[in-house]
Amino acid sequence: MIHPDQWHPVDGLVLEPNAMAAVTIADENVVVAAGPGAGKTELLAQRADFLLRTGQCPYPRRILAVSFKVDAARNLRERVRQRSGSRLASRFDSFTFHAFAKRLIDNYRPALTGYNALKPDYRIDPNDRIQGEQITFKDLVPLALEIVETNAYARGGIRQTYSHVFLDEVQDCTGLQYRLIKAAFGRTTAVLTAVGDTKQRIMAWAGALDGVMHTFADDFSARPLPLYQNFRSAPRLRRMQNRMIARMDPAAVSPDDELIGDDGVIEVLGFDTEHDEAQALAELIDGWLREGTAPSEIAILVRQQPHLVATVLGSELADRGIAFRNEQDSQDLTAEPAAALVFNFIRVIADDRQPEAYTELMRTAARSSAPEGEATRFDGQLKRMVGNARAAVRGPRFRAKEPAAWRALVHEFLHLVSRPVLTALSAGYQQGTRLDDMIEQALDAFSRELALDGDPVRALRRLSEADAVRFLTIHKCKGLEFEKVMVLGVEKELFWGTPTAAISEFFVAVSRAKHHLVLTHAKHRDRPEGAIRRWDEWRTPHQGFLDFAYED
After folding, report:
1. Which DSSP helix (H) or strand (E) runs through 323?
2. What phi, psi does 146 have (nearest 5°)?
3. Cis omega before residue 60 (within 30°)?
4. How distant, in Å, are the alpha carbons of 76, 111, 309, 315 from that of 273?
5. Using one digit for the tens of pLDDT, what is the confidence trace for 267-310?
């Protein structure tokens, strides 16, 4: 433990004055308004390090971070571990709102009564609720809110556990989510740090509060601290963003002398059809990969329905052997520890060149808390099992193209790892059927990918964040960044709705790019199979948005 005056940003990072103030403030609530690339995740990670290393968060109390998206929660958790080390980071809990709500329900479930009462082995289903036995994801926050608002014991337990609370992307907080935070930590000694960007408030369709950052500042007497610098994008891209900010929030425009430089590439590409578009973009992506760009540094962004809008591009990439993954289906799954364990096991036994997956597999499955002799014996058993599975996969009798063959090996491996070790991977696995559901979803996802070409290595690459080009909706890409970004279909037929919402979403999309941004539009898009709602085949470029790409 060190004195606060002796603390410096980890890894020699230099923080702008307002960021440094937000990181090191002692007993005052703060709301940080930050633009894209201003380093919101880094700010929270540095603040966590400051609080833990200086004793501002005294042992055994903890820090709670609540994010809107699974990716954001995971990225923040990992950043804190990188900055502070595993020992200090073990006192940092990073959840989505749904995961935090489930933790409260699991811990204080008996407080729910009447229609909302739940059995210990309750399940979570995407659509259907069964009284006492099954709830939906939409029920999680309301049930947690009921617990906190009506049960003093639960409120006391939460407040005793957490001395500091972080709210990430607070501009997207819905009314019920905000009520949950306010009920749990309003008028308490907990110190709250909220970060967000009103220019990225794109979750209005989900009920995000209008002006929630101002509401938070009023309710929690929070000190506002704006951040202006964009550390993500090259100067040419920052100037484009600045032109958009001048339209959206003139007071937040950056001075011209802070945006000098010619680094960065912006391309606007128009096509006659989506087939022409797909061929040209696949060629461009192929070139980037040959030049050494990592697949995970390439993102294809679509405002909505990427499985329809990007179908032709996906087919073109598949024909070229370029792995890609539709985040609409798999983003949340890859953040699940049980799914990651399943994928790593298959990766290790299917491919000889996976040292990182092997190391992570052994670390996750190890019985580190067991006595030394027992842990050593299990380590030997685990290595033998993995070796035998690798030999079986390479044997002449193994049916590598059949999902059932892989399922049998996975279940044998998970049986060896043992149920207690698996449930310890996540608090959400300790009640209900979520652990089994995640394992089954992981196997189903692998089976779907395997069915495409019968190649398990390629199937895993398509499921991997590291080895595949990523297709995302703009809602899914928030908080992420990539070297190369393609925004597909900058057309009025896709960017429709209120002007404020549309330009906010477009701003989020273009601000994901660090160096190279490609904007596309096509005159005609054939109606794809599976399109249920309105689909306009003839398209009009959204010239108002495309004009932002051009220097004056």
Report:
1. none
2. -60, -40
3. yes
4. 40, 58, 12, 15
5. 999 999 999 999 999 999 999 999 999 999 999 999 988 889 99
